[in-house]
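#lab-general

N.A. 3:47 PM
ok so I finally got the sequence cleaned up, no stray characters, all 395 residues accounted for. can someone with queue access submit it? mine expired

B.Y. 3:52 PM
send it over

N.A. 3:53 PM
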Amino acid sequence: MAPTALTPVFVGLRTGLHVLFTLLAVVVIVRAVVRPGEYSGVVILLSAVLVVVYAAGAFLPRGRGARAAAVRSAWVGALTLGWICLLVLTPDAAYLVFALFFLYLHVLGRWWGSAAILVSTAVAITGLALHTGWTVGGVVGPTVGAGVALLIGLGYEALAREAEQREALVRELLATRDQLAVTEHESGVLAERGRLAREIHDTVAQGLSSIQLLLHAAERADADRPGVEHIRLARETAAAGLADTRRFIRELTPPELDDQGLGGALRRLAGTQWAAQGLQVRVRVSDTVILPMQLQTALLRIAQGAVANVIQHARASTVTITLDADQHDLRFTVADDGEGFDPQVTTAIDGGTTDSFGLRATQERVQQLGGSLTIDAAPGRGTTLAVTLSPGEAA
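B.Y. 4:20 PM
back already:
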């Protein structure tokens, strides 16, 4: 497992398991030394071998492949066989089963591990009965230990699963934060470029155009007057400056929108980038709708984000992008024929929470424009993302 905030907890639990197994094996050895019997030497040797086999688990493969799983299962089987042999020689070995309970759950998984716990509990009870006869303690002790091991093991599994989910969420949050930062920076740069383009167009370009017209009028009024060549040179200089200014405006305008506006940019993406992804995109945006450059750029980014989500998650074949505008409102929609989703589960925009970071980024962009975002979706019938704006406020 990758390091997480709960890694110290997991390390502590595993260390405790290692210490428990070692101490129980030492108890068996010490009792064999203190109370020697016919098989004390064999018990001591077998206990030492069991500890060595257990320690060899540190060198087992950690992967999730079938071969690694088979090796780990064989290791647990060898430990179990050694424990059974030790149990035949001494009843003290019955206590080792408590450490084996946790190994079964950790290595074999929930279902096979639980089955192994039940079988090993029955073996421990039978082994104690063969040595000391049937007693309440000999039955209740291993049974209670098995129940406690199951509860702890299931709790450990739930904790590990929660840690993985939390780490995945943190990684997604960090990635989304970086994406939002890049998006906001890009949006700010584009907005500033658009503002500069408008300012230059409305001031410098218009001034140079007026100067050029006035000089041209003066030149035509008296073409033979002294110094007319200076007027002509000034007019040509103003014309050259106007051409340079218009070139600066074109360079400041976002490249996707510089020629044909929002509709042209969307159609260009539909015929190239999105078509290459196997998606048919229909664009119903009239080129006669005149929108501020900042608003066009924002709607273009919203469409790009929405179509990217469709490609990644919706499994759709067709997307329709529509722009409807009147004197009061502007409605921009992106509708797909994909598999859809349940908005109550995936997102709750009115409540301000969402599990879809792409939708959250879109919502924040729409809020910055002073508009509203609605999502009409249901499993099996596609999704429609609708942005409603007031062009005057968005400008």
